[in-house]
Design brief:
Elements (H helix, E strand, L loop, with lengths): L9 H11 L7 H18 L11 E8 L7 E4 L5 E5 L19 E3 L7 E6 L4 E4 L8 E4 L2 E3 L2 E3 L4 E4 L12 E2 L2 H7 L11 E6 L10 E6 L6 E9 L3 E2 L5 E2 L8 E2 L7 H11 L5 H20 L15 H8 L22
Parallel strand pairs: 11-12
Antiparallel strand pairs: 1-14, 2-3, 2-7, 3-6, 4-5, 4-8, 5-6, 9-13, 10-14, 12-13, 15-16, 15-17
Helix pairs in contact: 1-2, 1-4, 2-4, 4-5
């Protein structure tokens, strides 16, 4: 990058920080510190729940499954194995989703207990996470359903904190509230509530966000939804990632806003070193962010006064119709007040 150009790549940003603090770019520990500051700045910039950047918004569709009730089941009290007859548990449905899988819930006649499937061994054998506690079943009906669904692989958080879907039909609620309202969540219907849960880290890499729907779906639905991505960096080959690691990586932030990362990284770099310069960098960052948040894009909604002019237009087109205040020519200025 030419020294007169806007910050573009990861290299531009961390070298800019090093130059600003007059540190040697050949000092490995200092370079690592500057790189870390830029990555922290990238994440912190996108943390706010009260604002959203259009460049980080993504759209996806969630396919939710119909309950599966084909065939019959046999099991006994104290057993975790359920044997099916005429079942196709390990087979994919018409939408490429396995009919029953780990995490699927099951209900059996004569009991309100909701069981979770631990694993599916075959089309006719599955294992429950807990032992069956009811009366032995033989050639019995059953219902297998899913209320918990995996979100887009780059999902960070929802765009709208009130509704899960873009149709604004499914209200987002706190997970504790959902558990209080529907502790078993086993009555099927059209989903009206949703909450986000985390399954915990997978191989110590990251949390696994899931959406829980209530009621569990009674048929197949497609739910369009919008979310904030966690893939904030793009490489030269177009591969997206969470953090910078290569000098040629670029943030997904538009070029005109990228210097905000520079000032935020400076603030982090000066932490516990120079309070005055840290405050200056922080002030510069906040000023840029205010301008960024107030910048307009096509179709942005802004506060404005919109007078109700429908009846005014009608009377302007027909000035001699109506009576009293409805006439265009009046003695009390009703026409000028758009009344």
């Amino acid at each position: 990058m030419a020294v007169t150009e806007q910050f573009t790549t990861f290299n531009d940003l961390y070298i800019g920080v090093l130059n600003a603090v007059r540190s040697q770019t050949s000092q490995a520990s200092t370079v690592s510190q500057a790189k870390r500051a830029v990555n922290v700045a990238l994440q912190d910039m996108h943390l706010g729940q009260d604002y959203h950047f259009y460049w980080a918004e993504r759209d996806a569709d969630l396919l939710i499954n119909a309950p599966y009730t084909t065939g019959t089941v046999t099991t006994t009290a104290g057993d975790t194995t359920v044997t099916g007859s005429g079942t196709a548990w390990a087979t994919d449905n018409a939408y490429g989703v396995q009919n029953v899988r780990s995490g699927t819930k099951m209900k059996f006649p004569g009991s309100e207990v909701v069981y979770r499937v631990d694993s599916v061994s075959s089309d006719t054998i599955l294992i429950l996470r807990t032992a069956f506690i009811g009366t032995a079943l033989s050639a019995s009906t059953y219902t297998a359903f899913d209320d918990e669904y995996e979100l887009a692989s780059d999902y960070l958080r929802p765009v709208d904190l009130r509704f899960f879907d873009d149709n604004r039909e499914i209200v987002l609620v706190d997970r504790r509230q959902l558990k209080r309202r529907v502790p078993r969540n086993s009555v099927l219907g059209r989903p009206r509530l949703a909450t986000q849960i985390e399954l915990g880290p997978s191989a110590n890499v990251s949390l696994r966000p899931r959406i829980v729907l209530s009621p569990p779906p009674d048929q197949v639905y497609i739910l369009p939804y919008s979310y904030i991505t966690n893939q904030l960096v793009v490489g030269t080959t177009g591969t997206t990632k969470v953090n910078f690691d290569l000098d040629t990586d670029e943030p997904i932030i538009p070029l005109r806003y990228r210097h905000a990362l520079y000032y935020y990284a400076l603030k982090i770099f000066y932490e516990h070193k120079d309070d005055v310069r840290r405050a200056e960098a922080d002030a510069a960052y906040k000023e840029i962010m205010l301008r960024t948040l107030n910048d307009t894009t096509t179709g942005d909604r802004r506060m404005r006064i919109e007078p109700q002019v429908g009846h005014y237009t009608i009377r302007a087109e027909n000035p001699y119709s109506g009576r009293g205040a409805f006439r265009r020519f009046d003695v009390n200025n009703a026409f000028d007040r758009m009344e």
